[in-house]
Amino acid sequence: MAKILSSLNNTIIAGFVLAVVFVLIMMQWHDGGFSNDTGWWAFFFRWLHVLSGVMWIGILYYFNFVQIPNMPNIPDDQKPAITKVIAPEALFWFRWAAMSTIVTGLILAWLNGYLVDALTIGLMAGGTAKASAIGIGMWLGAIMWFNVWFIIWPAQQIALGMVEADDAAKPAAGRKAMLFSRTNTMLSIPMLYCMISAQNIF
């Protein structure tokens, strides 16, 4: 077990193997066995959507609850460990988790047949409260995704010295990235409420 858990790759592979094992066990409990229909694929993409979202929001909260507040407490000679090693790696997983979350969310909405209703926030004829809730959540998620890819990531590249820029531009870029990261943290609260309420209230 220690050999598996000592490697992140092995740990992730083991997690997926366990998921497959549990799927096979649950298939035995289900009278109909495995059903390769739209409902199963909708479930599968919901699982991927939640998995991606946990990664995305988890790293967003790490930045805002742990890294940013504690950067002033780190001695200057130790800050390169964060800015040159940890932050670039975290930003890689952060932006691709955001991409995976929005792609799997759109596929899920399409498979479940509410993509248009959600994108129009349930305002079209026959729209429901559930479509409005999931639609608002989807639009908030889309704004957050846009912020990650087109504002936070370009600004962080400047702030961390990953692209050529004047030294004077780095603090401004860092502040811009921080403010939009805080914007995403703020939006994540109503976004998650809308997503969960659509599944459990309406």
Class inferred from helices and paired strands: mainly alpha
Percent of residues in helical segments? over 70%
Beta strand count: 0
Please, how many helices? 7
Count of folded domains: 2
Cα separation of the termini: 44 Å
The average pLDDT score comes to 92
Q: Which segments are poorly predicted (pLDDT under 50) over 5 or more consecutive residues?
A: none
Biggest sheet record: none
Q: Tell me what portion of residues adopts beta-strand conformation.
A: under 5%
Shape: flat
> Radius of gyration over alpha carbons?
20 Å
List the helices and strands in order: HHHHHHH
Describe this structure in words.
With 202 residues, the protein is mainly alpha-helical. The protein has two domains: 1-34; 37-200. The protein has helices at residues 2-5, 8-29, 38-70, 79-111, 115-119, 129-159, 169-200. α3 (38-70) runs antiparallel to α4 (79-111), α3 packs antiparallel against α7 (169-200) and α6 runs antiparallel to α7 (169-200). The chain starts with a helix and ends with a helix.
Record keyword descriptors for this entry.
flat; 79% helix; 2 domains; single chain; 202 residues; 0% strand; mainly alpha
Strands, helices and their partners?
Layout: H1 2-5, H2 8-29, H3 38-70, H4 79-111, H5 115-119, H6 129-159, H7 169-200
Helix pairs in contact: 3-4, 3-7, 4-6, 6-7
Gist of the model:
By secondary structure, this protein is an all-alpha fold. It is built from 7 helices and no strands. The chain starts with a helix and ends with a helix.
